[in-house]
Design a protein that fits this description.
- This protein is an alpha/beta fold.
- It contains 14 helices and 12 strands.
- The strands form 3 sheets. The chain has an 8-stranded parallel β-sheet with strand order 3-12-11-8-7-6-5-4. A two-stranded antiparallel ribbon has the order 1-2.
- The structure holds flavin mononucleotide (FMN).
- The site of flavin mononucleotide has 21 residues, from strand 4 and strand 5.
Amino acid sequence: MTDVSDDRVEDLMTGARTSITPEIVPADEVVHPTLATTYLGLTLAHPVVASAGPLTRDADGVRALADGGAAAIVLHSLFEEQLRAESARDIYIEESTEEFFAESLSFFPEVERTESPISHRYLDLLERAASAVDVPVIASLNGSDIGGWTQFARRMQDAGAAALELNVYLVPGDVTMRGRDVEDRHVEIVAAVTGEVDIPVAVKLSPYSSSFGELAIRLDEAGADGLVLFNRWTQPDIDIESVAVQAGIELSTPGEGRLPRTWIAALRGRVEANLAGTSGVETADDVVKYLLAGADVVMTTSSLVRHGPGHVRALVAGLESWMARKGFSSVDDVRGLLSVPVDVDVTAYERSGYVGALEQAKQRYGSLSGTPVISAPPVGPVPTPPVDLER
Ligand SMILES: Cc1cc2nc3c(=O)[nH]c(=O)nc-3n(C[C@H](O)[C@H](O)[C@H](O)COP(=O)(O)O)c2cc1C
């Protein structure tokens, strides 16, 4: 953790967020920065990781990502529902008589009969991917309930996963479910999975918790080796012509990186687990921002879908040239520079940032309650005046 002077803490508390004074490095003194990174105990060449998505669905995709320069690759998820459906089908088959068998299979439409079970195909992909590339391959298990499916983690480990990413995708659709029960479920799932395996386990989470920081700390204590922030919940749209709900996952936009970065900045130094940023990476600038906030690694799917697996090299080259330009010799020197200092009250800090932001907005757009003032936006950072919300 970087030492923070009293003056800087004062700046942070009054909402005047820190900026790094650029150190101009003469061209002949530029050295290549060290990008080596550790994540979940794995040594990575740099901090840019390919997250779970359509490009990690098959061995060719995994190979292309490794060739494209990804430091580690997270396979697409295997879902709790897929494992449950397979298991239900197996039990049913065992309990059925031969003559009843053919008809009974029709009750299980989701389970394909002609191909090997999805779980076998996943393990096969994992094995092939792990031996085909020389970067770590991380398996992904996705679920929201307690049950036997968590034991599958052990089979992923045995198939060669360097680590496991556990995506706890729990949308509490039961509107009577208490917040504490939602959080407890997360902790129980993480404890169940970490109890199954010896490899590191990272947990991918959604931001929707009444006190996300405390949940993160509980998961850290329950044995999570990494926290991956954040999962994007599918948020269906409505087509007003067909008058129908449109589901589907959109690719992200850079603004979506702000929320995960806010929490990464708040958690840096407050949890032992590594922190991975996922959402909104499009350019090297987004990678830099995540590292400054305190991410150990930065993950991307959308940018690789848009620009191809080789886009990782552009992200890494951009990071490297930014570091050289600013005089940083290693990513460890960058990481967490703009995180919330550990000796600062995070609530007060966030509140001061919020109040400061409102002040800036008032200066820029006019009084939030009165007639908008139309003027040219100020050039450069807006100074933060003393706070007086009543003005
Ligand atoms: C088409 C698509 C498929 C995805 N599949 C998975 C998946 O199987 N498991 C998972 O944990 N995340 C999955 N994700 C989420 C991504 O891993 C990532 O967390 C999210 O897209 C935000 O990162 P991005 O802004 O770089 O896209 C998927 C995303 C997309 C766009």
